[in-house]
Each structure stands twice: as structure tokens, then as C-alpha cells.
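User: Design a sequence. Structure:
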């Protein structure tokens, strides 16, 4: 069983994956910091899913880009659990993990992670049947510059990530080719 940890934004998420089945998931955006809520969420999820620590075979953790403090807390927690439970650990790039929510979508997927002061970490992806392809590697730029470039390219784009939520008005009013991901997939 795999324990997954995501703390790269204000949203904290933990999940358990057994074989190809999502066994449990807890995603929350609260006023508490990741340092206050991450370990209690992991313990609560394991308890509610009736999973013992000894059943965990590995830990996956978001490696960003994103909130420095959030990433540091998630990585330190994952490393500590991996060491304590003597299981392997693997890092997962946040934009790639977001793009995986869109299996089967024919539009381009633009992940926008807030980088503060109007900047975003952007990545552009597309699904080719069952394979996720990277069209633009993760880069940092002003959100308006990313939108200008995608608009000029003239292809349908679905936006996700906390940077898209911050720029929702700009995105929705910009082009009929642009659309926001459903709230459960942002």
C-alpha cells in the first residue's frame, strides 16, 4: 500500500493507494498550517481505512514547485515516515500529478502553481490515449504572459492548480478556448 502526501499549496492532501485502487483520501484547505494538520490527517486516514503502519509499502510525496514551507513540511514528514517504517520514498512533481487528473481529456492541460507577485509555475501537458506527454516543461513567468502565449497558440486549454484559481477572472474572460477545471480537479 502506498501513502501519498501533497503539501505544495494551501491544500493538504493525503491518500492511500492499494494496487490500482484508491483506498482512502483526505483533502482539506483549512486555516491550520501543514505542520499542525499533516500528521493528524495521516493518523486519522489510516485509522478510518483500518490500515496499519506495517501495511505501508512506500511513500510518495509532492516535490513542487510550490510553497517552500509546505513542501519542506511534506518532504520532512515523508522522509521521517519512510525511515521509521523502512519503506522506499518517491518524489512526484506537482504539475504532473495535477495533469494526471485529466486522463482522456483531449484539450491541452495547463497547470498553474502560484509563485507570488503575479507569477506562476506553468507546465503544459496533453494526453495521447493513455500516455501523458509534456508539451512545455515547468517554467516560471507572469500569469498574463502564460495566458498570452497559450491564446496565440489557438488550442483548447483546461487550467488547473492554485495559480489558476488566483487568476480565474483573467482566464475565464480571456478566450473561448480557455476553461477552468471543475473545482474537484483543481
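Assistant: Done.
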Amino acid at each position: 500500500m502506498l501513502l501519498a502526501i501533497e503539501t505544495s499549496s494551501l491544500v493538504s492532501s493525503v491518500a492511500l493507494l492499494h494496487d490500482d485502487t484508491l483506498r482512502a483520501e483526505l483533502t482539506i484547505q483549512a486555516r491550520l498550517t501543514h505542520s499542525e494538520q499533516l500528521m493528524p490527517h495521516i493518523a486519522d486516514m489510516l485509522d478510518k481505512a483500518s490500515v496499519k503502519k506495517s501495511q505501508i509499502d512506500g511513500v510518495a510525496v509532492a516535490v513542487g514547485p510550490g510553497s517552500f514551507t509546505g513542501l519542506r513540511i511534506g518532504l520532512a514528514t515523508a522522509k521521517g515516515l519512510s525511515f521509521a517504517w523502512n519503506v522506499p520514498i518517491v518524489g512526484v512533481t506537482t504539475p504532473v500529478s495535477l495533469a494526471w487528473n485529466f486522463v482522456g481529456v483531449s484539450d491541452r492541460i495547463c497547470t498553474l502553481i502560484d509563485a507570488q507577485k503575479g507569477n506562476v509555475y506553468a507546465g503544459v501537458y496533453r494526453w495521447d490515449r493513455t500516455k501523458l506527454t509534456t508539451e512545455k516543461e515547468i517554467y516560471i513567468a507572469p500569469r498574463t504572459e502564460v495566458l498570452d502565449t497559450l491564446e496565440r497558440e489557438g488550442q483548447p486549454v483546461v487550467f488547473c492548480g492554485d495559480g489558476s484559481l488566483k487568476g480565474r477572472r483573467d482566464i475565464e474572460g480571456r478566450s473561448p478556448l480557455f476553461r477552468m477545471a471543475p473545482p474537484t480537479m483543481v
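The radius of gyration is 17 Å. The longest strand covers residues 131-142.
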